[in-house]
Design goal:
- There is one protein chain.
- By secondary structure, this protein is an alpha+beta fold.
- The chain has two domains: about 190 residues, Helix Hairpins; about 180 residues, no CATH class.
- It is built from twelve helices and ten strands.
- A six-stranded mixed β-sheet has the order 1-6-7-8-3-2. A two-stranded antiparallel ribbon has the order 4-5. It has a two-stranded antiparallel ribbon with strand order 9-10.
- A hairpin with a 5-residue loop joins strand 4 and strand 5.
- Helix 1 crosses helix 2 and helix 1 packs antiparallel against helix 3.
- The longest helix is centred in the N-terminal third of the chain and has 107 residues.
- It is rod-shaped, with a radius of gyration of 63 Å.
- The C terminus is likely disordered.
- Keywords: Coiled coil.
């Protein structure tokens, strides 16, 4: 919206209007004087014509009277004085001619005065027109300056609106962040109180103690025999015959199940998960344990190039443990992998939040959910079926001295056997093509495909 014109603009407009009115009056008066001048010029023309007519008449009379005198009176009879007297008497009087000239001069004098007055008025009108042009130029300059000021004012108003919008958005973001911070502080305070309650509990689960008290012999075959139950497909799938032989529901150890194995072998293991997970939306999500206490499952495990059947395991303990207990049982690399599951999607969450969540676990503010597993049996019919199932022969090629050399699958499988039975060995996760899902306490497989869940 344009602002009101300044005071000099109003004065310029008033001066322009006043000078325009004076110019209009002067032009009207000049027009009147021109009309009077034209009428006087017409009268002068008539007087001049009358004067010429009288002069012609006078000359005609002179000639006529002179001829008459010459005809009627002989020159000898009249003297020159008499002729001159007669001619003088017959002429028009000088007084009449003089009066006529005076009348003509008196009529010429107003015409000259009117002409001079007209010239003066024309000069005055010219000055008024020049003043009017000057005032008009001033008015144009004032309007131009006013337009520039209005444009600058409009730009400033737009900037003010943009700043107000940014300020409102910033205030809204700040309020949202403040509310989230308050909610986060409340959640952290509640978790700290819960952690204090857990610390005050008389009994606490110890991973090291659980793995040391594990029985040594649970009826499992050797690791080389277990490797014969390989299911090579990345997407875990059992045949209908194998499903029919499963006495218990199937559980597949997925990538999110970080297992800590006993040093004595594969008879005992502990699945470790962070108890609290930060979602992408900034909310805290409490994770359920992968298995409920006293549940029994047929366990399958991914080992490098396929799935293996481990045996029948029972979840004997579901508890929370401290970071120090987990840290004493695994390496720093394994600890980082366990902490990576505390954030739903680390790529979509700010790094400072990821570090803050890890610090909460490192400072024992948050705890880990642990499921103690113990081998309670081995399904021999299922094992025999998986060992005798048809599968393509395993091949492995190695380069030596510039030539390709074929080695047996058994030699290629001896490397992970030693690691497996030395303890604290966690198999690498399956490939990215395999989709694994977390399991709850519903007694069904968590990382098997959907069709496998229905069959199980």
């Amino acid at each position: 919206m344009a602002s009101a014109p300044p005071e000099d603009g109003v004065l310029a407009n008033k001066m322009v209007n006043f000078l325009g009115k004076q110019l209009f009056d002067a032009q009207a008066e000049v027009q009147t004087l021109k009309t009077e001048n034209e009428s006087l010029e017409a009268q002068i023309v008539l007087h001049v014509q009358d004067k010429e007519r009288l002069s012609r008449s006078l000359r005609e009379l002179e000639q006529k009277h002179f001829v008459v005198i010459k005809e009627e009176v002989s020159c000898e009879a009249l003297s020159d004085d008499a002729v001159r007297l007669y001619f003088h008497l017959s002429e028009p009087s000088d007084s009449a001619i003089t009066s006529l000239k005076q009348e003509l001069s008196t009529r010429d004098q107003p015409l000259e005065e009117q002409t001079e007055r007209i010239n003066n008025m024309e000069l005055f009108c010219a000055r008024l027109e020049q003043s009017l042009r000057d005032e008009e130029q001033k008015r144009v300059d004032v309007e131009t300056a006013l337009t520039v000021k209005n444009e600058q004012l409009a730009k400033k108003k737009r900037k003010i609106r943009e700043v107000k919008a940014m300020l409102a958005e910033t205030r809204l973001n700040f309020e949202v962040s403040e509310s989230k911070s308050q909610q986060l502080a409340k959640d952290v305070a509640a978790l700290i109180q819960e952690k204090e309650k857990i610390k005050a509990a008389p009994e606490c689960f110890s991973i090291t103690t659980f793995l040391k008290n594990c029985p040594e012999d649970c009826g499992q075959p050797s690791y080389e025999d277990i490797r014969a139950t390989k299911i090579p497909d990345d997407n875990f799938k059992l045949s209908p015959e194998a499903l029919a032989l499963c006495e218990k529901p199937v559980y597949v150890i997925s990538s999110c199940d970080k297992c800590i194995w006993a040093e004595s072998g594969a008879q005992c293991a502990v699945i470790v998960r962070p108890s609290i997970m930060l979602t992408v939306t900034g909310e805290w999500l409490r994770q359920d344990p992968p298995l409920c206490a006293n549940t029994v499952r047929e366990f399958f495990w991914w080992d490098h190039d396929g799935w293996r059947y481990l045996g029948t395991f029972k979840c004997t303990t579901v508890a929370e443990c401290k970071k120090s207990d987990v840290r004493s049982s695994v390496s720093s690399t394994r600890m980082k992998k366990i902490l990576a599951n505390a954030v739903c999607d680390s790529d979509a969450v700010a790094p400072i939040l990821v570090k803050a969540v890890e610090d909460l676990y490192r400072n024992d503010i948050f705890s880990f959910v642990c499921c103690g597993l113990q081998c309670v049996g081995f399904n021999r019919p299922l094992y025999d079926l998986l060992c005798h199932q048809e599968r393509p022969p395993e091949k492995s090629w190695s380069s030596s001295s510039g030539s390709n050399k074929r080695i047996s699958a058994q030699d290629n499988q001896t490397q992970p056997v030693e690691k497996y039975f030395k303890g604290r060995y966690h198999p690498p996760p399956p490939s990215k093509k395999r989709k694994s899902n977390e399991s709850g306490c519903n007694g069904q497989s968590s990382s098997a495909p959907k069709n496998k869940k229905k069959n199980a």
